Give the backbone structure.
Amino acid sequence: MPQVFLLKKVQLPNASCTSYVISDADLPQNLSEIEIKLSAKDEKELRGGVSSTADAPTIAILLGRDGEAYSIDEPYLKAVFSCGAKVKLIHYFHPAEQLKEVDGVLLPGGFFPTPKEWYTESYDDAPAPNARTKAYLELIDAVFAKKLPLLGICGGMQMLAGKCGAKLLRKITPSDVEHRSIPANSYAHDIRLASNSLLSVLNGGSLNAKVNSRHSEAVVEVPDDKLRISAKAADGVIEAIELKNYAGFALGVQWHPERMVLQNEKFASAIFQRLCDEAKSFKKKK
């Protein structure tokens, strides 16, 4: 399969980290047989000395989209590579078909339209779903069909929740808990984990944790037969969900653990390590 490489490491406007990007001008018009990759040099740098073994799982990460360019924030890559996994970058042309030889999926956050019927209130100015939105929806369907391990972060969690029948709030009600206007690499507020939840296990049994936060929308209602709320902030905002009756691992978190992995936080690192461990188990079963 022909390969094209992310070409630049840049600081995108209003971003708090560097990203790897490739513009449409550097891509062929037909993406059906194209794989977007990191260069060997960039991957080595991002791995930071952590190498992958022959049995290492491959984690697919859906690329972001800024204007006329695909992009991926550096912390997502570093967090996955820190577990010894391999990465496959997914573009928006038939994303489900790109899951061959993939053992787990990461749905990152970002700014893109959410299906308007998912909101608790109607909004006249709600933008229509775009190619990025559709890629999330198609990818989640494919993940469920294959029973792949899945981690959704921020917007990725919201898409996972909405696909399972949850309802979203477009603007969080202001409270003493700050969810948005905090540097992405700093703790914003406390959360309370549900007892006997997967997250409590990953947090060493403790039900208390501190998280960073960069979101204005939130999940507000979940179908009890499909989702479990596994963490909340003090103002009631849902901070994490886990899928019920799913054959594999499926977790959504509203904060950005990929940022805290870079600060060697144990809780954040445990979340990514669990994704990679589950992906490795999935690979062995194939």
Summary: The two ends are 23 Å apart (CA to CA). The mean pLDDT is 93.
